Amino acid sequence: LRTNEASEIDIIKKEIFVATKFRDLKKVIILLNRQMEIEGESPDLLYQLGGTNGILAFQKKNFFSIIYLNEMLNSFSKALDLDPYHIPTLEAYIDALYSVPKILGGDKKKAIKLAKRLNQISKINGHLSMAMIHFKNENNEKFNFYLNIFFEELSRLSICGSENSKNFFSKNANNFPIKISQITSFFGKEVASGLCALNFYMESSNFKKNLYSLEWIYYLKSKLTFLNGNREESIRLIKLSLDLNPEFELSKTFFKKNF
Fold it and tell me: pTM for this structure?
């Protein structure tokens, strides 16, 4: 890149950070497209573009949602053309293909095919994607089968420890630690791994791009900490959540039930 282009890329990245912080997703899309004009298309940028369009698509309930859905699917497809084994894109594309109606571009058979590919690259990601496919398909037997082997793989990986966490999450999407935390919290299994995942998320440089509310983050950490046997720290965390938002129902209910 020429010096002026490199300088513009730095400005774009800063503007994306600010736009993301203030949930100006339309501006994020414009900025990502400009970044690709300068740098060229890449799996990471196309994944981000697809994900941003996806958020907008599910926020809208009108004609524009169809436009954003198309852009999401096209971006994910292009990303996989460049790198067929890009884990964050595979996860997102599988979920999108299975969730979007066929008339709007959904393709359940393709989603299952990609989930099998994902499983070859990363068993934990593949098992989770297959579990979610069967959950949406209301096949409880297969859902439980894949969920159980997901937890077995999570236990085997031993993600706690800074280097282990760093190696494990480096190839995944920024929100993958949150997925791990949510699932372990909900089912009350492998909660130590879920807590490690959430700590990694909160301590990483990507936390500044966090799109989740802080009261929810502290609620999730409080619940995991409680399940992991640390009642006092759990109380401290749930109070932090309620200090941020005294009307946050999840935290209010959790506090009343357990403390």
Answer: 0.90
